[in-house]
Amino acid sequence: MKKLTNDFGNFVADNQNSMSAGAQGPLLMQDYILLEKLAHQNRERIPERTVHAKGSAAYGELKITADLSKYTKAKVLQMGEVTPLILRFSTVAGEAGAADAERDVRGFAIKFYTKEGNWDLVGNNTPTFFIRDAYKFPDFIHTQKRDPRTHLRSNNAAWDFWTLCPESLHQVTILMSDRGIPASYRHMHGFGSHTYSLINDKNERFWVKFHFKTKQGIKNLTNAEAQAIIAKDRESHQRDLVEAIDRGDFPKWKVQIQILAENEGDKLGFNPFDLTKIWPHSIVPLMDIGEMVLNKNVENYFNEVEQAAFSPSNIVPGIGFSPDKMLQARIFSYPDAQRYRIGTNYHLLPVNRARSEVNTYNVAGAMNFDSYKNGSAYYEPNSYAQSPKEDKSYLEPNLNLEGDAQRYKALDDDFYTQPRALFHLMNQNQKEQLFSNIAASMEGVDSTIIDRALEHFEKISPDYKEGVKKALQK
């Protein structure tokens, strides 16, 4: 058996779990193999985005209608605050020329131009994801892209990975359900997906999840309906968004959050930072906090959509991160991808530029067209009052960590409870669509991989297995 190595021939002891401080994280920067994998992935293709390559975007605003001062000091989330934004939708796996109406997860990335700097919430139209450790992310995306030998998509690769990483079953069930092909970007929900933190003026931390529920209603396409649309229009979602805003039919979403106090994570019964799981609404109810509307189309697609750059590392006082291992890695991976794809000064482009005051000692670099406003100093610390200084009042409260540095497996192996709950929520017609969609996606897949998938489906529900098995025989 060949031994796995990194790019320099160093043996890889564990290629499934990143190195973290304790089982819940956060991650350690000394995990050089994780950094190598993520950095290499960001440089695999130029200049197209590695994922989320094809997108649509529009401008709008967020209005907060609830009093959240108990949970956060962020100005953007205070009652009555109206914040301009740009929202970029996208398909995930397809290239820039992919059809809009393909079965795929949709990106849901929002840049809020707040009074305290840009806040980016980079999510999807699903509350979960296929994996919970970014160590697996480059490998997962490889399965969604083209085989380097044939340059063809591979159902076999996708199902091989999914069935060997059963934490993906929850997301796979969503993807293969009737919601796997939204009728348009306007007719789907959006989610921050990750667990983030809110910090109030008493320096108390709360864990939070963000939800955006479409006010247009959920509308989806069957495989047959999508195929008929793609045959005539590969830009169906883009066309729908542009035309809706042009005629004044502005898309709207109800904004909701789920909140847990910092010490309440155990009430869920599982790792609250596991991206493959939702927080059950029966335990952590949704709270209405406002409305988001899109009311202006972009004027230059390349400048405002293709060069729009999002990263969860862009936060503002009162909003922070969590030990979610996927989120922790994206904090590095996303801005690294943008610096590579667009350039080191991508933040100076109008669509990305903060509308609040910016004071930085990051200077020079290709395509820097900014003026220098730091007075006498071009470094920090310095002795000059007119030059910007650090302000420790913005420090976040301590985050208690424990555990030895090691490559920890996930805290649980419960891959079936939440997919089972989702399956039981489906009516019979939705279940039949699920079975049919899975069977269609298994064309060309090795029989051993199909058998492995059926074993997983049976653990979710015997009806799940039998439904897929029957659909495969048609």
Automatic annotation (TrEMBL):
Residues 5-388 form the Catalase core domain. GO terms for biological process: hydrogen peroxide catabolic process; response to hydrogen peroxide. The lineage of its organism: Bacteria, Pseudomonadati, Campylobacterota, Epsilonproteobacteria, Campylobacterales. PROSITE patterns: CATALASE_1, CATALASE_3. The keyword Metal-binding applies. Gene3D superfamilies: Catalase core domain. It holds the Pfam family Catalase. Its cofactor is heme. PANTHER family: CATALASE. It catalyses: 2 H2O2 = O2 + 2 H2O. Heme binds at residue 334. One of its GO terms (molecular function) is metal ion binding. Its EC number is 1.11.1.6. It comes from the Bacteria. Keywords: Heme, Hydrogen peroxide, Iron, Metal-binding, Oxidoreductase, Peroxidase. GO terms for cellular component: cytoplasm. InterPro entries: Catalase, Catalase_3, Catalase_clade1/3, Catalase_core, Catalase_haem_BS, Catalase_immune_responsive, Catalase_sf. SUPFAM superfamilies: Heme-dependent catalase-like. Belongs to the catalase family. The keyword Nucleotidyltransferase does not apply. The active site is at 52, 124. This is catalase.
